[in-house]
Predict the structure.
Amino acid sequence: MKLTKEDIQFIDQYLENSDVVHVDIRMEMTDHVASEIEAMMVGGDQRAFYFIFKDYMVANKHSLLSNNKSFIKATDKQLSLSIFKALLKWPSLLTFFICMLLFTSLNMVTNISVLKSWVGVLPLIGFVFFGVIYFVQLKWFKLERFSALERMGFIYVMAFHLFHLCWNISNFKKVENNYVVYILSSLALALLVAMVLVVKSRISEYQNRFEKLV
């Protein structure tokens, strides 16, 4: 027995009112709860949806909301795969090769040490710009919050520190023709483009799955 769209809407609204604010986590939880209730109905529970749902949440709400590592793991797995695929799409690849071409061309007309000083901050500038846009979308355009994307920001910051470690090593060794910085900067900027692509696809996925339900 399948739940109606009103039933799915009720589950989603209940979880949102229970402070499950991140839409990707809520989507996973909604699917999980709906599947459990459908299984109970198939198993012979003849009660109306509301009463089955109420008893299920009484028994499982605490563990569902407190022990959500499985849902986070599921969204992280989906996110990692989505980022990898997005990095292989033409906008990300084009960004990488254009940046490499730009940095290489500039290196021919300016001192590489001077070029490093401003190329090195480009990934951070790009990340700050991405963060500001995301915040504005949340604040004024009521964009749904995505737990996986917000955690991805932490990963990006860690990658940025790794980037600067490689940069400092190249400076320490005084390898003037070392293009490690350019490669990492181009990759970091391509990663930002991939993040934007993932944000757009996640929003589209949410709208397609829940537009008629919530």
